Model the fold of this input.
Amino acid sequence: MISDSLAPARTPARWRAITATSVAAVEVALAWRFGWTAPLGAYLYLGMAATVAVVIDARTLTMPNVLLLPSYPIGLALLGAAAAANGRWWPLGRAVIAMAALAAFYLALALVAGGQRMGLADVSLGGLIGLLLGWVGWSALSTGVILGWVAALVAILVWRPQHHGQRAGVIPAGPCLWLGALVAVLATK
Done:
């Protein structure tokens, strides 16, 4: 069953416009960053999936695992094809190690927080972020993670809850983590 948060008929037009604009901006930025190289397809697909997921998270405070979980085998297959086309397998190996390490780190954070500040679906996003950053390199991984948490800290300081019953300081983590990762991917050569 597909989550209600993915049902376009129930999504306000404003959020559909935000989603379309965000995806277009991310896709253009990634195409500019990678050009016509082998990993472009993987980055375009994973960039679209992550962007749609974080817009949903921003709107509903729920990360759509129904979108994120299938992105693992698709992203791995696309990056595997890029590694085969380049004849260089280490970037794929590094990406898989980074994916596992970042997912494990975010899982530990989620378990320590008891699901109060970071949920298991954020862990799913974290693994995909690790995959994307790991392909680029270790410096992109560390930079992207740090920038994501800095963005989260800034968001916590300025966030004013708009949902009734929501505690002060509770923010959707996904957009912050994705923003940090995206900046690191775009800035690291």
Summary: The chain is about 75% helix and 0% strand. The chain has a mean pLDDT of 89. The radius of gyration is 16 Å. The helical segments are 13-34, 40-60, 65-68, 71-86, 90-113, 120-136, 138-158, 173-187.
